[in-house]
Recover the amino acids of this structure.
C-alpha cells in the first residue's frame, strides 16, 4: 500500500477556498500545543490571543485599524503575484510613503487646510512608494535583475534612510534627543471614524482600493493581461501582451498601495516619523495576499485574520507575559499550512493497494 | 604589515557567514531547487547556536545545534516544496518569514545574555610569527572550516560521481529520473545540506563574530547570499570572491568611521545593500550568460509521474 498524489483534471475551486480555513484552524491547533508546552492554560491563552483583543468597541476599532494597511498592501501585492511578479519589498515602499507623506506634513504643517494637505500627503506617499518600486521594475526590465532580491534589498536601504532622517535632518529639536520627528499638526492627521478610538479614514481608503482592484481585475483589459502573463507567459507573449508593461504595472501598483499605507500609519496612529513606521506590515501583507487567494475579497478577510494575530501578540505580551514576536511565529505557521493545503487544489491524495507484488 | 594582517583577518571574518550560506545555497540550486529561506535559516541557526552555547558554555555544541536547527527548518521547505509540490518561491518566502518570527520569539530571553564566544585559533609560537603568523594562523576555527567547505563543495560537484548526479538532477530531472536516480531524494539531501550551511553561517555570527544574540542580526545576509550565487554564476570559486568582496564592503563603514570620514553611519550601512543591487544588475544584464550557467531546471517543480 502506498500513498500518492493524483493530478486533478482541473483545479478544485473548493480546495482553493477551504485551504485558508484549514490553515487558520491548524494554526490555532499549533497555538494550543505551543501554549500548553509553555506551561500556560491553552484555553485561557487562546482566549487572550484571539478573543480578548476584540471583545470591546475599542478593540474592534484597533482590529480594523491594523487591518487597513494589510488590506491595502495585500491588494497591491496580489495584482503583482497574479502576474508572477514577486515584489517582496512592500515594507520599504511603505517606509518611503511614510517619509514622503510625513515630509509634506512637516514642511507645510498648518499652512494649508486639512482637505488640501491630507490629499497632498497621500499623493506624495503613493508617488514615493511607486518611485521605490520603480527601481526593481527598471532593474528587471532593463537589466533582467531578479526583482525578489532587489526589492528586498531596498527594504534595508529605506529603513536606513528613514533612520538617518529622524536622527539628523528631521529630528525634533525639542524631542529630548530621541530619534523622532516633530508631532504632525492636527490638520495633517487623518479624521477619526469612531469617537474615542484610533480608527481613522485610512480604513475607508483601504476599502476603496479593494473595490477598485476588484473591478480592475475583472473588468479592465490590463488586469486580464496581467493574469494571462502570470498563468501562461508564452501564451501572453504570443498574444502580444508586453511582459515589460506587466512588470512595470505590477510593481507600481504594489508600490502605490504600500506608499498609501505608509501615509496612513504616519498620519494615523503614529502622528510623527519614528525610526520604524511599521511592525512588518509589508511582509505580513505577503501572507495576506496568499491567504486571500490573490482575490480582493479574500484579501479583505485575510487582512482581518492577520490583524488579529498582531493584536493577539500584543495581548499575549500583556496577559501571558509572552514576547509579542509570537505574532511572527503564527504568521509563518499560517503560511506553511496554507502552502501544504494548497496541494489539494491540483492533486487528489490516493492510496494504491499493492495489487502487484514488486 | 600588521595592519595588512588585521584587514585580512577582518575581511575573512566578515565574509565567512556569506561563504557558508552561499555555498550551501549553491548546492541547493545546482540540484534545481530555489530556496529563498536562507535568511530565516541563518537566523534560526544563529539563535539556536547562541542558546545552546549560552546554556552549555560550549561554542562548538552551539555551532552544531545551529546547523541542526537550520537543517530541521529546511526540512519543512523540502516537505512543502518537494513532496507537497508547493510553489518554491512562496515556500522559501514563508521559511524566511517564519525563521524571523521563530528566532525573535525563542531568542527574546537571551537578548542581553553575554557568552564567551569561540576563540580565534592560537597556535603557540606560530600564530605570533611576525607577518604570516596573524595572516594565516590566527582566524576563527570556523573561518578555516568555511574554506574547507569550499574545497569540499568544489571537489564534490566537479570531481565525484555523486556531484555529477546532483548537477544532472538540476539540469534535467526527467533524464536523471529516467536513468533511475531518485530525483526527489537527491533534492531533499541538497536542501538539508543547504540548511545546515546557512545554520553554520548564522552560528558563526552569533557565537564567533559578534558574539551575541540580537533580533534580525543577520541583517539581510541571507538575501545577499542568494544574490551572491547569481553573481557567482553558480561557480563555487566565484562565491568565495564575492563573499569576501561583500565582507569588505560591510567593513567599509567601520573603516570610514575609524578614518574620521564625516558621513552618517546610516549612509555607510546602506553600502552592502546598494552594492548587492548594483552587482546583481550588472551580472544579470547578460541574460544569455545567466541562462547558460544557471541550472536548467532551477525553481521549476518536478515530480515523478503517477
Amino acid at each position: 500500500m502506498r500513498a500518492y498524489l493524483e493530478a486533478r483534471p482541473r483545479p478544485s475551486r473548493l480546495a482553493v477556498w477551504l485551504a485558508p480555513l484549514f490553515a487558520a484552524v491548524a494554526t490555532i491547533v499549533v497555538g494550543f500545543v505551543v501554549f500548553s508546552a509553555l506551561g500556560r492554560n491553552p484555553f485561557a491563552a487562546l482566549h487572550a490571543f484571539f478573543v480578548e483583543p476584540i471583545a470591546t468597541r475599542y478593540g474592534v476599532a484597533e482590529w480594523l485599524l491594523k487591518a487597513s494597511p494589510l488590506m491595502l498592501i495585500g491588494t497591491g501585492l496580489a495584482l503583482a503575484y497574479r502576474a508572477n511578479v514577486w515584489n517582496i519589498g512592500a515594507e520599504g515602499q511603505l517606509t518611503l510613503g511614510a517619509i514622503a507623506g510625513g515630509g509634506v506634513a512637516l514642511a507645510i504643517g498648518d499652512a494649508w487646510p486639512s482637505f488640501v494637505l491630507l490629499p497632498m500627503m497621500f499623493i506624495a506617499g503613493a508617488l514615493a512608494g511607486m518611485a521605490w518600486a520603480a527601481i526593481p521594475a527598471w532593474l528587471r526590465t532593463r537589466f533582467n535583475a531578479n526583482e525578489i532580491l532587489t526589492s528586498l534589498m531596498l527594504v534595508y536601504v529605506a529603513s536606513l534612510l528613514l533612520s538617518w532622517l529622524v536622527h539628523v535632518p528631521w529630528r525634533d529639536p525639542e524631542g529630548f534627543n530621541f530619534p523622532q520627528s516633530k508631532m504632525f499638526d492636527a490638520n495633517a492627521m487623518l479624521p477619526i471614524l469612531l469617537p474615542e478610538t484610533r480608527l481613522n479614514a485610512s480604513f475607508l481608503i483601504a476599502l476603496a482600493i479593494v473595490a477598485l482592484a476588484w473591478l480592475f481585475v475583472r473588468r479592465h483589459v490590463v488586469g486580464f493581461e496581467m493574469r494571462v502573463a502570470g498563468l501562461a507567459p508564452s501564451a501572453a507573449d504570443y498574444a502580444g501582451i508586453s511582459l515589460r508593461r506587466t512588470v512595470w504595472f505590477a510593481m507600481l501598483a504594489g508600490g502605490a498601495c504600500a506608499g498609501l499605507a505608509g501615509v496612513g500609519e504616519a498620519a494615523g496612529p503614529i502622528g510623527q516619523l519614528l525610526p520604524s513606521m511599521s511592525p512588518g506590515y509589508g511582509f505580513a501583507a505577503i501572507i495576506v495576499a496568499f491567504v486571500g487567494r490573490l482575490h480582493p475579497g479574500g484579501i479583505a478577510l485575510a487582512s482581518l485574520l492577520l490583524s488579529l494575530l498582531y493584536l493577539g501578540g500584543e495581548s499575549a505580551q500583556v496577559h501571558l507575559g509572552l514576547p509579542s514576536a509570537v505574532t511572527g511565529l503564527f504568521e509563518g505557521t499560517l503560511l506553511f499550512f496554507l502552502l501544504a493545503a494548497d496541494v489539494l487544489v491540483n492533486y487528489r491524495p490516493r492510496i494504491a493497494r499493492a495489487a502487484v507484488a514488486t | 604589515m600588521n595592519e595588512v594582517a588585521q584587514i585580512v583577518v577582518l575581511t575573512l571574518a566578515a565574509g565567512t557567514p556569506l561563504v557558508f550560506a552561499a555555498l550551501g545555497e549553491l548546492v541547493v540550486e545546482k540540484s534545481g531547487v530555489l530556496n529563498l529561506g536562507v535568511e530565516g535559516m541563518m537566523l534560526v541557526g544563529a539563535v539556536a547556536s547562541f542558546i545552546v552555547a549560552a546554556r552549555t558554555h560550549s561554542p562548538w555544541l552551539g555551532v552544531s545545534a545551529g546547523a541542526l536547527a537550520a537543517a530541521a527548518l529546511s526540512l519543512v521547505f523540502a516537505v512543502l516544496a518537494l513532496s507537497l509540490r508547493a510553489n518554491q518561491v512562496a515556500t522559501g518566502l514563508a521559511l524566511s518569514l517564519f525563521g524571523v518570527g521563530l528566532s525573535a520569539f525563542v531568542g527574546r530571553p537571551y537578548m542581553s545574555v553575554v557568552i564567551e564566544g569561540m576563540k580565534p585559533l592560537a597556535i603557540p609560537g606560530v600564530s605570533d610569527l611576525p607577518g604570516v603568523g596573524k595572516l594565516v594562523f590566527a582566524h576563527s576555527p570556523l573561518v578555516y572550516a568555511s574554506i574547507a567547505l569550499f574545497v569540499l563543495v568544489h571537489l564534490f560537484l566537479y570531481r565525484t560521481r555523486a556531484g555529477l548526479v546532483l548537477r544532472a538532477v538540476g539540469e534535467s530531472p526527467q533524464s536523471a529520473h529516467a536513468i533511475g536516480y531518485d530525483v526527489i531524494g537527491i533534492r531533499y539531501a541538497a536542501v538539508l545540506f543547504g540548511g545546515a550551511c546557512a545554520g553554520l553561517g548564522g552560528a558563526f555570527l552569533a557565537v564567533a563574530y559578534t558574539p551575541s544574540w540580537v533580533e534580525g542580526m543577520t541583517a539581510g545576509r541571507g538575501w545577499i547570499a542568494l544574490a551572491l550565487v547569481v553573481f557567482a554564476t553558480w561557480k563555487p570559486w566565484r562565491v568565495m570572491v564575492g563573499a569576501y568582496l561583500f565582507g569588505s564592503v560591510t567593513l567599509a563603514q567601520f573603516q570610514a568611521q575609524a578614518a574620521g570620514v564625516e558621513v552618517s553611519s546610516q549612509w555607510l550601512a546602506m553600502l552592502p545593500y546598494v552594492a548587492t543591487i548594483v552587482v546583481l544588475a550588472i551580472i544579470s544584464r547578460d541574460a544569455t550568460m545567466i541562462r547558460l550557467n544557471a541550472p536548467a531546471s532551477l525553481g521549476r517543480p518536478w515530480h515523478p509521474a503517477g
